[in-house]
Amino acid sequence: MGQTKNSELKRMQPDKQIAFVTDLNKCIGCQTCTVACKKMWTSGDGQDFEYWMNVETHPGKGYPKDWQKKGGGFKDGKLQIGLLPTLEDYGIPFQFDYTGRLFEGKPGPVTPSPEAKWGPNWDEDTGAGMYPNTYYFYLPRMCNHCTDPACLTACPSVAIYKRKEDGIVVVNQDLCSGQLECVKACPYGAIFFNPTTKVAEKCIGCFPMLEKGKAPICVGSCVGRARFVGYLDDMNSAVGKLIHKWKVALPLHSEFGTQPNEYFIPPVSPYKESKEGEITSERRIPDSLLKEMFGPRAIEVLDIIEMEREKRRKGQRSELMDLLIAHTNREMISI
Predict the structure, then answer these.
(1) In angstroms, rounded to a whole number, what is the distance separating the alpha carbons of residues 281 and 155?
(2) N or C: which end of the chain has fewer CB within 10 A?
(3) How far apart are alpha carbons 301 and 108 in whole angstroms?
(4) What is the pTM of this model?
(5) Residue range 75-105, pLDDT digits in tens
């Protein structure tokens, strides 16, 4: 019965689909979006470990830990049930002894456990490579509000649906029976189970703000002005142009089969230095890593960006560079 109703829900296409684009060349890893989202949406009972918005460092294990390896999504059109993250994968919540650390020179302790071994952004700014060719980049992540959400398909209670007006994926908590199938099915680790309320919880795309014509808190608070929001088919918006016209905004791990609606401009990195200090033709961030994350077109996108940057250096006009620079906040928001 649940599967039949889920199939009916999937056939109910929204009138419009909200989409997000993040320029990873502008994200400075400040975590302002993380803190703003946390303060607004996940400060309640049982939500200590939940970060609906979080900025990871890559290469890294991410949040929850090793989410890229947990499974889920679809393969050949069939739902895949992945692993259930443990509380240790998210990071058991703890508090720092700020007074001791900042004013008394103490290394700790932290509570409730001085043996904390993992948490959100535990490997922040770590990266990879050897000097002078070290590298890393930031990756802000939230729910993708997928066109074909695996969480919706997996839900045995028919509690998950896409909003007709904007395509945002939400949980009807009155219907949720807390069976965790949605958590296991989401390949991005973007849906959570609250152990106190016994229901699933996730990013809601700040739809109460969208309904008032305001940007979601993660977009509006972005210090680096790296985030864009708009409707997928709006070709007058920056989102529509970056995704469809210039084709430089790519989904993360599209092979998971959920058709995510969060897109990323891959990061351009400096070129490596040889042992003799000469600049080589190899980028510091490996092409293989970017293709693994953003698909085979990632390198083509880097070439497009570098070509358009060169045009600007020569004093020529570049619509793409104007879009990415976004001289005013309003240019980044089309809702």
Answers:
(1) 48
(2) N
(3) 45
(4) 0.93
(5) 999 999 999 999 999 998 877 777 887 888 8
Architecture of domain 11-87+123-146+203-334: 2-Layer Sandwich (3.30)
The full DSSP string for 254-271 is GGGSS--SEEEEPPP-PE
Contacts of 308 (CB under 8 A, 6+ apart): 318, 320, 321
| pLDDT tens, residue by residue, 223-246 | 999 999 999 999 999 999 999 999
Cα 51 to Cα 17, 33, 93, 132, 233: the distances in Å are: 23, 10, 11, 33, 29
**pLDDT value at residue 10:** 61
Residue 142 Cα distances to 60, 110, 180, 191, 199, angstroms: 17, 28, 19, 9, 19
Residue 5 pLDDT > 70: no
Are 62 and 56 in contact by the 8 Å Cβ rule? The answer is yes
CA–CA dist 140, 56 (Å, integer): 6
